[in-house]
Amino acid sequence: MPPTSTRLILCEQHRRWSGPVRLALRQAPPPLTEGQLCEVRQLEDCDDFLQAWPASLLAVEITEQRFEIALQWISRWDRLCPDARVAVLWPAFPSLAVAALREAGAVDALRSTSQAGQLVKLASRHAARVPDPQVSVCERILADLPWRNGS
Fold first, then answer.
1. In DSSP terms, which residues pair with 67 in a beta bridge?
2. CA distance linking residue 137 with residue 27, whole number of Å
3. Among candidates 45, 56, 127, which has minimal Cα distance to 86?
4. Residue 21: pLDDT above 90?
5. What's the pTM value of the predicted model, to 2 decimals?
6. Do residues 20 and 113 lie in contact, with contact meaning Cβ atoms separated by under 8 Å?
7. What pLDDT is recorded for position 44?
8. What is the pLDDT of residue 45?
9. For every residue of the chain, which 3-state class applies, written as one string?
10. For a Cys-Cys bond, which of 3, 63, 113, 128 suits 20, CB 3.0-4.6 Å?
11. What is the pLDDT of residue 3?
């Protein structure tokens, strides 16, 4: 997995998650590293990163006041960047909100910074599944064949 193929984009206003996520990234095995963490403060700022790395995982802090706007952005990203994934960070998820967020395209909902390790694992699994854009489809298929190593 080349380091340029995906990013963990952390979108939060108050930097509560930044430290715990960086620590979890330092302790996590590849394919994701601390150097692949991109931090932004506004939902609108995520677009630039998604244009550069469309197969990224976005971790988006949601507040009750910005719930509807966040829901629209998540739904938009789900349509425009089908290889990207979104996890939401919100300490008080009403059950109906979780259902709406998942319907919009969110793959996970995390409540506490103590779940930073879970977020990094999710991002690492996602990064591991993203194909190397420099390897052709044919090469990927051949690499997955059971007899590829003379077995």
1. none
2. 32
3. 56
4. yes
5. 0.84
6. yes
7. 92
8. 94
9. CCCCCCCEEEECCCCCCHHHHHHHHHHCCCCCCHHHEEEECCHHHHHHHHHHCCCCEEEEECCCCCHHHHHHHHHHHHHHCCCCEEEEECCCCCHHHHHHHHHHCEEEEECCHHHHHHHHHHHHHHHHHCCCCCCCHHHHHHHHCCCCCCC
10. 113
11. 43
CA–CA dist 65, 54 (Å, integer): 27
- pLDDT for 1 equals 38
Quick count: other Cβ atoms within 10 Å of Cβ 78? 17
What's the rounded Cα separation, in Å, for the pair 96 and 143?
A: 43
Single-letter amino acid, residue 13: Q
* Domains of the chain from N-terminus onward: 8-144 (3.40.50.2300)
Examine the pLDDT at 141 and tell me if it is beyond 80: no
Average pLDDT, the chain: 88
| Alpha-carbon span 87 to 139, nearest angstrom | 31
